[in-house]
Amino acid sequence: IFDRWIRLSKSPKQAAQNLLNHGTTTNDLYKVLRKRNMNLETIRPIWRDLGLTEYQLRAARHAASAL
């Protein structure tokens, strides 16, 4: 879904916001961004622009690394 919104000329921030609006968890959002080969330096500004906290980002990173 994320890639479809990108193809529809949505920015990564808009696509991520759409995912959150459709019930995607912050943990799953982090996984989607990582699957698009985004590194932490790329993810962090998007995360902040969405109004998510550094604590939520750390928790999502921790959950993803526990898999």
Name its key features:
RxLR effector protein; mainly alpha; single chain; 5 helices; 0% strand; 72% helix; 67 residues
Your description of this structure?
This protein is mostly helical and 67 residues long. The protein has one domain (2-65). It contains 5 helices and no strands. It is globular and about 30 Å long. It comes from Phytophthora nicotianae.
Number of helices: 5
How large, in whole angstroms, is the Cα Rg?
Answer: 11 Å
Overall shape: globular
Count of distinct strands: 0
Helix content: over 70%
What can be said about the biggest beta sheet? none
Sheet-strand content, in percent, reads: under 5%
Low-confidence runs of at least 5 consecutive residues: none
Helix-strand string: HHHHH
Structural class: mainly alpha
**C-alpha end-to-end distance:** 22 Å
**Total domain modules:** 1
Mean pLDDT across residues: 90
Oligomeric state of the chains present here? single chain
Task: Please provide a brief summary of the model.
The chain is mainly alpha-helical.
Present the secondary structure layout.
Layout: H1 2-7, H2 12-21, H3 26-35, H4 40-49, H5 54-65
Helix pairs in contact: 3-5
